[in-house]
Known about the structure:
This protein is an alpha/beta fold and 253 residues long. The chain has helices at residues 4-7, 70-73, 86-97, 107-119, 133-140, 150-156, 167-181, 188-194; strands at residues 22-29, 39-47, 53-60, 101-104, 130-132, 235-237, 243-245.
Amino acid sequence: MLSLGLQGALDTSGKAGGGGGYAVVDVEATGSSSHRHRVVELAVVLLDREHRPQGEFSTLVDPGGPVGPTHIHGIEPHHLIPAPRFAQIAPRLLGLLRGRVLVGHNVGCDRAFLAAEYARMGVELPQVPQVCTMRLAQEHLAPSPYGLSLRACAAAAGLPAWAAHTALGDARASGQLLAHCAPADGGELEQAQAVRWPRMPRTPGDDAAWVGRSAGKVGSCEPCEAGIASVAQVTRGNDSAHRIAAIAANGGA
């Protein structure tokens, strides 16, 4: 069962759902080219219009081939044994993004990987309003001697440390950076609500569990999956896939 607060966001009708807000995304990939390489992990952190956390979702993704730079993202082939293919999570992911402004650190790169994965399925990812936290950092923070990486920008903003190059950790940090900079809405939220999204029929295979990283095995993030628990009442379910639900209505990620 989905929480009432997220039913609209997970609708697959093509209409914008929920009350709008932001979808903070991060993608870990098998390489640097969205055309030649594949998504191996992704995370989405949902924020409301005031940048308050609403929910977070994360999964490893079976790329159907080599996992790429393990020395960067920490993911090894055996970690992906229970992971879904992108096509199995694609309809639900569309529901998470629908009606929201897309946010990321160098968000164009994350969007390019998502668009390429959908294109392989014959689905066009629509153009939606975007906010890049790298650009926000340039505009709102003092210059960092360490450049504009997410870690450098987060440190300049005084944000706590996290396990970098984990999709959920990076998405959380990007969301916190967005909230710290708190850009004024220039109409992007309403524009996002007006975007028409493609419809994808749901099949039994689309209900595959989203498989997050196990604590102490890959990085340091707990698995995170759609559910109805509060952030203080994280519950486990579907032990074979090590799923954890974590929906935060008003708390921090």
